[in-house]
Amino acid sequence: GNHGDRDLVETPLYRRLESDDETVRDETFLILGQIRQPWAVEVLKKGLAVELGARRKVAIIAMGEAGDPSLAGQVQRFVNTQGLVLAAIESLGRLGNPDAIPALQKLAVHEDELVQAISAVALLKLGDVETAGPVLERLATADKELVRVTVANQLHDVEHDISRKVLGTLAGDSTATVVRPALLGLEHAGDGSMEAMVLGKLAGSDPDVIMAALDCLGHWGSAAAMDAIVPLLQNENPYVKLSAANAIMEIRGRQGGAA
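Above: the chain's sequence. Below: its structure in token form.
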């Protein structure tokens, strides 16, 4: 029955890739990436071959989502193509094929710091800590805010000591747009050694930063953190109040219900 189901899905999806409507084609690429089956990967390859220029971007992103290491060769062709560079590098990081490491090492010393950032995170995912670590640590204090924000966002789902260290640096940034994604990354990657720094964020004025800090403390904060959290139950922002209440419940839950 499984093969029959596949036939029912494959033909209409392939037809959608032949649509004149770019939005329909893009949606279809993303659906194929989510399916994560060998037949869907084959349809993705056919679709990529038909698209031209920057129109290939969504197909390349979908290939990263598909997670099939054999796609790395297809994606790597576009790491120097204007408009596709960042998408191709990010997908290589997701595909888990170490054959991409030499190309990514070259890109980690690219003149553009955004290219360096995304290449370094891809290398970290592929296990090349020696190259990735120094690049990420340097970019955590880059002059350009966009570079720092990008590093914070890219490291969200990368569990590694380097990731934790760099996110810790970024969480100490003076700019809320950098601090918030860094704290969101530390929600799962952080630990008690960062508690004092995160508690300091509760005294700020940006509600998004305060809520991200509360999410961290809910995940790994100690009972001692409660003293700083309880006053936020009276905050004028209803979302901050809710986040504070959630953090208190999570910490109490970890303490075995002790008040």
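The chain has a mean pLDDT of 93.
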